[in-house]
Write a structure and sequence with these properties.
heterodimer; A: about 120 residues; mainly beta; 7-stranded mixed beta sheet; 4-stranded antiparallel beta sheet; B: about 110 residues; 6-stranded mixed beta sheet; 5-stranded antiparallel beta sheet
Chain lengths: ~120, ~110
């Protein structure tokens, strides 16, 4: 089975530009998570969805960040406008979400560089 | 106090030795506990999950959970240079599907 798929794998953009990151979760998984990882702050949860509905977006840094999950197979994380401090690796993860079982499987990540 | 705490390391062990990685957590109601391995430049990879007190073994890996003391540990037997990576402890806090991650312990296995 295919794992979590993310695109693009690398993104270099200039400050002020819009950036869209994409994720396809593992088929059959009903929970999807967006994380950001930096050396300074480690792995931080940005937002997660359950059955395509956003459940907790308290980790989204500010209004420049938005996330959508229009169906069970696709999610986007958008940054508009981007800033240099947004440079990080962004991971998408999914889990089956059955009661008591929350094992999450990560995608390969998108390395974002904002100049 | 951080929600999930790990010693950042590096923890250096010789090849063939047992590596012991520790993690403490603050939410006493936490129910699920995970260890992820992350190689440099790669994504976290799930290697162990544990849900009840005691030990759980999988090959060279043993996870240990003590809810009364609020700690989780990971033992790696017969450590290999290929085990050199950062190990992340993750905890499922009460009422949340999302995991809270520690900052990771960097393990170096010396040939």
């Amino acid at each position: 089975d295919a794992g979590v798929i993310q695109s693009p794998r690398h993104e270099v953009t200039e400050m002020g530009q819009e950036v869209t990151l994409r994720c396809k979760p593992i088929s059959g998984h009903n929970s999807l998570f967006w994380y950001r990882q930096t050396m300074m702050r480690g792995l931080e949860l940005l937002i997660y969805f359950n059955n395509n509905v956003p459940i907790d977006d308290s980790g989204m840094p500010e209004d420049r960040f938005s996330a959508k999950m229009p169906n069970a197979s696709f999610s986007t994380l958008k940054i508009q406008p981007s800033e240099p401090r947004d440079s990080a690796v962004y991971f998408c993860a999914s889990s089956l979400g059955a009661s008591g079982l929350y094992e999450q499987y990560f995608g390969p990540g998108t390395r974002l560089t904002v100049t | 106090q951080k929600e999930v705490e790990q010693n950042s390391g590096p923890l250096s062990v010789p090849e063939g030795a047992i590596a012991s990685l520790n993690c403490t957590y603050s939410d006493r109601g936490s129910q699920s506990f995970f260890w992820y391995r992350q190689y440099s430049g790669k994504s976290p990879e799930l290697i162990m999950s544990i849900y009840s007190n005691g030990d759980k073994e999988d090959g060279r890996f043993t996870a240990q959970l003590n809810k009364a003391s609020q700690y989780v540990s990971l033992l790696i037997r017969d450590s290999q240079p290929s085990d050199s990576a950062t190990y992340l402890c993750a905890v499922n806090r009460t009422g949340r599907r999302a995991l809270t991650f520690g900052s990771g312990t960097r393990l170096q296995v010396q040939p």
